[in-house]
Amino acid sequence: MWKPDRHAKKPLYQQIAEHIEQRILLGELPPGSLLTSERKLAGQLGVNRSTVVQAYEDLRASGIIESATGSGTRVSARKWGMAPRATPNWNRYTEGGVFLPNLPFMRRIREGLQTGLPFINFASGELAPDLSPNEAIRSLLKEMPFEEPLGYGDPQGFAPLRAALSGFLKERRGIAATDESILVTSGSQQSLFLITQCLLNPGDAIGIENPSYCYSLPMFQSAGLRLFGLPVDRDGVQEGDIRELHRQHRIKMVFLNPNFQNPTGTVMSEQRKTGILTCCEELGIPIVEDDPFSLTAMEGTAPSPLKMLDRSGTVLYIGSLSKIAASGLRIGWMAAPQTVIKRLSDARQQMDFGLSIFPQWIASQLLLSGRLSPYLQNLQERLLYRRDILASALDKSLSGMIEFHLPKGGLNLWGKIHEPVNDFRLLENGMKQGVLFVPGSVYGSEPGYVRLTYARPALDELEPGAGRFSEALRLTLSGR
Ligand SMILES: Cc1ncc(COP(=O)(O)O)c(C=O)c1O
Question: Are residues 383 and 259 in the same domain?
Answer without folding.
Answer: no
